[in-house]
Amino acid sequence: MQQRTIPCQYFAPQKIEEALGILFRYGNEIKVIAGGTDLLVQYYDRLYEINHWLDLKNIKELKDIRINKNQMEIGAMVTHTQLEVSEDIKKYFPILGQAAADIGSPQIRNRGTVGGNIVNASPAGDLLAPLMAYDAQFRLLSIQGEKIVTAEEFFIGPKKTILEPAQLLTQIILPLPSERTYGSWIKIGKRKALIIATITLALVVEMAEDHKTVKDVRTCLGSVAPTPIEIKEVKKKMVGKNFNQLDFAELGQIVEDKISPIDDIRGTREYRKDVAKKIMIKALEEIDSACGGGSYINE
Question: In this model, does residue 194 exceed pLDDT 80?
Fold first, then answer.
């Protein structure tokens, strides 16, 4: 008996509502494609397994970066290059732009999207730690309605998220930081370009009005746990203290103690723990230098 084949279907809607209807209809049977830089690698020798495609490339409203009152809204189809060159990103969220600039090659940055990087949910995803450090929220849509979740609750394991088959990540929401906010982004890999991170660190520090006392801190790392993580113990040590009086070595040790990396081709557990301490100290030194220079994000 001849086996019946399922015809391949390709959808490229122009409206979010159309895309949500298609997702509801096909559920797990359809693959959503944004830039395709991860999906096509994962399926490069078995693309025949995918019978239905939903391409988001024609949905213009997913390609915008805009400021709405006290927050920035980044469409899920915004490319890494857009993040890298955006003046608003440089002004308000500089380490997000720096992380985007560190992704892959120019070709990858021109096609890869912020939404794809998020939904792929690799522990080594370059944008994930900076997004967590900037207290990002994700807008998830389905035909049933809208749900907004924090970055911390969105990621539940390596390449696993809470996103349901009928849901679409449409927007990343970032609260605009105060003018007294400083950040540091550090990515470590086996070479200087075209690397998957061995470890990443995004440190964001907000000062009080005296420009000396720490008001808030978010210390987020990638490639050191099943998901990107925030080291909340650092916040407890830093908030309310004069930045110049902090023990950077002690804070670096806290980071080393609180991560749980694995051995893989890019580095051993011991190497990652040792490097985590060192880059935390380096990040604190960078912020200390920036504070001393009086360089604020909106000047």
Answer: no
